[in-house]
Design goal:
The protein is mainly alpha-helical. The protein is 81% helix and 0% strand. It has 18 helices and no strands.
């Protein structure tokens, strides 16, 4: 083992200090996106959105998804060149206008603009934290690393949604989101000082890797990687469509669930509890679902997760009271916990270390473009039907079909190898 490999050995325990700092970073990332979830859709009429204007309402998720999807790929490519920490810093600086724009917003267009900055923030920061934690972890710990990352982030999403719902009831939505957002961003920037860049670990891993094919022998350009991950390799392609499907489902929860529950007479704090339960079950469960897939393989948890997610959405659609909606939210969260970290861990299994950032960025581009696809598709369905339930039914069908595609159209990811030719 050469000196570089000795200095930058991989493993969560060996790098526990830096790994923990990245976990703290992603906790703040989750707080920023979570602060909107229960408050803004339920109170959209305060920003000039007419009742049943579902497509216009969903447009704030559309702007977020389009920007975040593109910047996921940009972040992965840029981080391979300039380092993970610099891109993480860019993401936090982009977050500063978000709470200010929400506070000053005279109409919903300002919320759409704020979510453009939210897309930049999330595309840069969350991509960098998960990529860095994968860089630090051992090859047999990638599922665990992704699980810890996503668990920390989505627990924060749930906490923020619930906390901001109560704060909005006490102080008003604008003041609550302004104070919560600025404090969160300031704390993240302060703690970023102690974060180290993980590119040296990537180079050390590459130095120890003996390529078994031409794939690992050289680093292809971003265009070649984008094409193979998006279209040419059936394993990558299936994982990307799975990412799109789960974000369509999350768009439903983010944009339309609060409106649906409010129409049934639920108060803001009660809505925060349902959406927060979904996110927190999703988050806490990922502490072990990622590691489970390190032991039994990626495919069984992913397929089971899609089945549970579809079932939870269907149960919410047919339910008429909180006694149904609360367990349905928990089922959806557990389904997400099974599929979400293991889709990205499967991508990591297939990817040589030197172009991992670009490959993960491509996957996250398609996955988070699912927000934009979901906003258009579900917004139009709800708009023309005049109700949210048809959008729920469509989402349940799409999620179920995505699980079927992965179940019957792919091999266990560790058995496959991508081809650039």
């Amino acid at each position: 083992m050469n000196l570089t490999a000795q200095a930058y050995r991989r493993g969560i325990r060996l790098n526990q200090g830096q790994f923990a700092l990245q976990a703290v970073q992603v906790f703040f990332v989750g707080l920023v996106i979570g602060m909107e979830r229960a408050v803004l859709p339920a109170l959209s009429t305060d920003f000039g959105v007419r009742s049943h204007a579902f497509f216009f309402l969903a447009s704030f998720v559309l702007s977020f998804g389009l920007v975040k999807g593109v910047l996921n790929f940009v972040a992965g490519t840029l981080s391979d060149r300039v380092g993970r920490k610099r891109v993480l810093l860019m993401g936090w600086l982009a977050a500063l206008p978000i709470p200010v724009l929400i506070y000053l917003a005279p109409n919903w267009w300002w919320i759409i603009a704020a979510n453009i900055f939210l897309g930049i923030n999330q595309g840069f920061t969350w991509t960098m934290t998960v990529t860095s934690q994968i860089d630090l972890a051992g090859s047999d710990q990638r599922g665990l690393a992704v699980g810890i990352n996503e668990a920390t982030g989505y627990v924060a999403v749930g906490i923020a949604g619930l906390a901001c719902a109560y704060l909005a009831q006490a102080f008003g939505p604008r003041t609550a989101l302004l104070g919560f957002g600025l404090v969160t961003i300031a704390m993240a920037l302060i703690l970023l000082i102690g974060v180290r860049d993980t590119l040296p670990w990537v180079r050390a891993e590459h130095a120890q890797t003996k390529p078994t094919s031409t794939i690992g022998a050289a680093t292809p350009g971003w265009g070649a990687i984008f094409m193979v991950v998006s279209f040419r390799d059936p394993q990558y392609r299936a994982l990307c469509q799975g990412g799109v499907a789960n974000k369509i489902a999350d768009t439903l929860v983010w944009a339309l669930f609060p409106v649906f529950f409010a129409a049934h007479g639920m108060k803001l704090a009660e809505i925060g509890w349902i959406t927060g339960l979904y996110a927190m079950v999703w988050g806490f469960s990922q502490l072990w679902t990622g590691h489970l897939a390190d032991r039994i393989g990626r495919k069984p948890p992913i397929v089971t997760g899609f089945s549970l997610l579809a079932a939870g959405i269907a149960l919410t659609a047919i339910g008429t009271a909180p006694i149904v909606w609360f367990p349905a939210a928990a089922i959806m969260g557990f389904g997400m916990a099974l599929l979400y970290p293991n889709l990205i861990a499967a991508m990591s299994d297939l990817t040589p270390p030197l172009w991992r950032g670009k490959a993960l960025g491509t996957y996250r581009y398609w996955r988070d473009t699912g927000y934009a696809i979901g906003a258009i598709l579900l917004g139009l369905v709800a708009q023309f039907s005049g109700a949210v339930r048809p959008a729920m039914g469509l989402t349940a069908v799409l999620v179920a079909l995505s699980g079927v595609w992965i179940a019957f159209g792919t091999k266990e990811p560790k058995q496959a190898a991508p081809h650039l030719e």
